[in-house]
Amino acid sequence: MVPVLLFLLLLLGPAVPRETHTGPYSLSFLYTGLSRPSEGFHSFQAIAYLNDQPFFRYDSEGRKAEPLGPWSHVEGMEDWEKESELQKAREDIFMVTLKDIMDYYKDREGSHTLQGLFGCELRNNKSSGAFWRYAYDGQDFIKFHKEIPAWVPLDPAAQNTKQKWEAEEVYVQRAKAYLEEECPGMLQRYLPYSRSHLDRQDPPSVSVTSHVAPGKNWTLKCLAYDFYPRGIGLRWTRAGDARETESGGDVLPSGIGTYQTWVVVGVPPQDKGPYSCHVEHSSLAQPLTMLWGKRQEAKAEGDLGTRPQ
Ligand SMILES: *[C@@H]1O[C@H](CO)[C@@H](O)[C@H](O)[C@H]1NC(C)=O
Ligand SMILES: *[C@@H]1O[C@H](CO)[C@@H](O)[C@H](O)[C@H]1NC(C)=O
Predict the structure, then answer these.
(1) Which of 16, 211, 250, 280 lies most in the core, judged by the most C-beta atoms within 10 Å?
(2) How far does the centroid of ligand 2 lie from the alpha carbon of residue 218, in Å?
(3) Which of 10-19, 91-100, 127-136, 295-304 has the lowest mean pLDDT?
(4) Which CDD domains match (predicted)?
(5) Alpha-carbon torsion (156, 160, 165, 170), positive or negative
């Protein structure tokens, strides 16, 4: 699927660990509409996120908003019947917009995608940011500028969409009010039910592995997994000096609400090291150091978070 907006979404999590008690917290929605649903993809799908955690989903097949993960056990946080009705109405509008754009481009053939991403952020219980934007076939299409307030076209066809969405002054005021009042209000309402999950600190499990082919460099891999939140620092040192990593560094979701990442370094056969992998994460009282020696595979130098540097 088109990755542009999804990538933006991954950046929404709290960027600064240890500040999570005051936020930022975000509530965001990712909508995807397909002109030609295929196996496994419905014509419309909505996923709602609290920070980077999916908390409910809705699609054109089931037409029901369904809480996800830990939120499926929470009582009284949301009226899911009402939420389903709201998502149904939004689906209809969304699919009309997709059809309008295809009409504009006479894009009758092939399969086309519209994505919408909107949401808001709270810091210290105050609204601290909001956004609303759309992409058509993976390209920026239109976005809302809430200070003007107005829709800003980012594509020729979006001029039409703008006219429609601004046909009455009140439409624009409503969009602004949604982002600045309604959305932060929902987030304030959701937080008491969600904070323990969003603020949790899952320390990384770390493993160091190595392999070598005759006459080639050693390849050392330091892998950190099962951690939350997303922010982490991972690096190799040789006798205390930082080494350039050969590959890795991307932090990827593990699919169960936690993250994983790794860094790889190449070590010439005659190099005696010593090499260590250092891991910093908000869940660790102290950075974690894993020492690699050629004889002993991956030997942990200290216990999780307890060893002074
Ligand atoms: C956040 O602010 C709202 C009003 O804007 C208030 O009702 C609510 O109690 C506040 N929550 C916290 C945790 O301070
Ligand atoms: C072996 O590792 C060294 C140091 O990391 C690097 O400069 C060199 O390019 C590597 N050689 C090969 C064949 O990968």
Answers:
(1) 280
(2) 9
(3) 295-304
(4) IgC1_MHC-like_ZAG
(5) positive
Q: Is the CB of 124 under 6 A from ligand 1?
A: no
Cβ contacts of 241-250, under 8 Å, gap ≥ 24? 243/275, 246/219, 248/221
Residues 31/246, Cβ–Cβ less than 8 Å? no
Q: What is the pLDDT of residues 63-82, one digit of tens each?
A: 999 999 999 999 999 999 99
CA distance 125 to 22: 7
User: Residue 43 and residue 34: Cα distance in Å, rounded?
Assistant: 5
Kindly report the pTM of this predicted structure: 0.81
Please name the residue whose Cα sits nearest to atom 13 of ligand 1.
125
What's the confidence (pLDDT) of residue 6? 45
The residues that bridge with 291 in the sheet, in sequence order, are 276, 299
- Tell how far the Cα of 255 is from the centroid of ligand 2, in angstroms: 33
Q: What is the pLDDT of residues 78-110, one digit of tens each?
A: 999 999 999 999 999 999 999 999 999 887 778
- CA separation for the pair 88, 77 (Å, rounded): 20
CA of 214 to the centre of ligand 2 (A): 14
Q: How many other C-beta atoms can be found within 10 angstroms of the C-beta atom of residue 2?
A: 15
- Domain architecture of the chain: domains with CATH: 2-198 (3.30.500.10), 205-299 (2.60.40.10)
What is the identity of the amino acid at 39? E
Atom of ligand 2 nearest to the CA of 267: 2
